[in-house]
Amino acid sequence: MKKSILILFVGFFGLMNAQEPTGYYSTATGLTGPDLKTKLSEIISAGYQTKSYDALYTAYPSTDTDKFYENDGSVLDIYSENPAGADPYNYQHGVKKCGNYSVEGDCYNREHTVPQSLFNEASPMVSDILHILPTDGKVNGMRSNYPFGKVTNPTWTSKNGSKVGNNTVGSYSGTVFEPINEFKGDIARCLLYFVTRYQSRLSSFSSGNILNTSNASQGLQTWELNLLLLWHQQDPVSEREIVRNNGAYAHQRNRNPFIDHPEWATAIWGSSPLAVDDANFSKNLSIAPNPVKGNVIHVTGDKDLKKFKTAMIYNMVGQNVQTIENPFQSGNTITLNNLPKGVYILKTGELNTKFIIE
């Protein structure tokens, strides 16, 4: 992938309409920048129902069950899930909750993507499911209260490949935690949600080299914001996130707008200035010819594509421009709907790839 293309189009957003209630975001129409962020904060704060910290465990079966990889009903733990094969271990909901742990696989608990220490474990942040994920206790402990970042030389690596080590992107060089590629966008959207939902309270929080407590419009430290926007672009919204968002709405009556409308991240903060080679984000799907000169593409992948019931095509701002039902039942070709010239992403299941129409 040429870097010139990557700089502009390092990734794309969205999967499908996330079943938002009719009119939920109607007052945000036409807004951009800080005005949009402030309006979204108002929308996702209104009607919010604060639940107890313990209630997270009862909500997780609806928000974080593996229906997407092994499809075995286990807890979908982003710190132990292996998207390419068997998980090193897994948990059943309500069983082996932490408690004490010494190694991976001992128990699972609740990971605050924005550490509790930054807001003194105060409510409602401490129990807001839209930034709190079920994760292995040991890996959660190793992440500690470090920012998320890019690790080149890890000092510790989890069984699914998540890493701890010094940050190697942007201005910050302290210790960070890097999740696997499959869930980088998920985590980015959790933090973008947090600094939007709680922007009026940021000045009372601690930074932790994560939050920008003196600039509510930005919300995050510049180096962290740039990296998270990149992850948001590289790792598009997945079906798993849409299911989680809907479950969270049922639980506490608010939503993550950057799952419902991923293009709003760019509308607020712009595109990430980082031009990082995204070869490692390949999801084992390819298109020929690429660039595309007609309306027919041939798709191949390292998995049996017939198992995928839907394929989606997105443009550069995350809009779903074409949905194909049962795309691979009678072959591996897809006919495009006379799409204009540009860069697109094809996504089916956990697989995605970019292509250019000339």
- H/E element order: HHHEEHEEEHHHHHEEEEEEE
Tell how many strands the DSSP assignment holds: 12
Largest sheet: 4 strands, antiparallel
Enumerate the spans where pLDDT stays under 50 for 5 or more consecutive residues. Answer: 1-17
Round the Cα radius of gyration to an integer and report it.
20 Å
Structural class based on helices, strands and sheet pairing: alpha+beta
Shape: globular
Instruction: Report the span from N to C terminus.
Output: 16 Å
The helix content, as a percent range, equals 10-25%
Strand percent estimate:
15-25%
Domain module tally:
2
Strands side by side in the biggest sheet: 9-8-11-12
Q: For the residues shown, what is the average pLDDT? A: 90
Specify the number of helices: 9
GO molecular function, one term: hydrolase activity
Family: Belongs to the EndA/NucM nuclease family.
Signal peptide: 1-18
InterPro entries: Endonuclease-I, His-Me_finger_sf, Secre_tail
Give keywords.
three-stranded antiparallel sheet, 358 residues, signal, disordered N terminus, 25% helix, 12 strands, alpha+beta, endonuclease, Immunoglobulin-like, Secre_tail, 9 helices
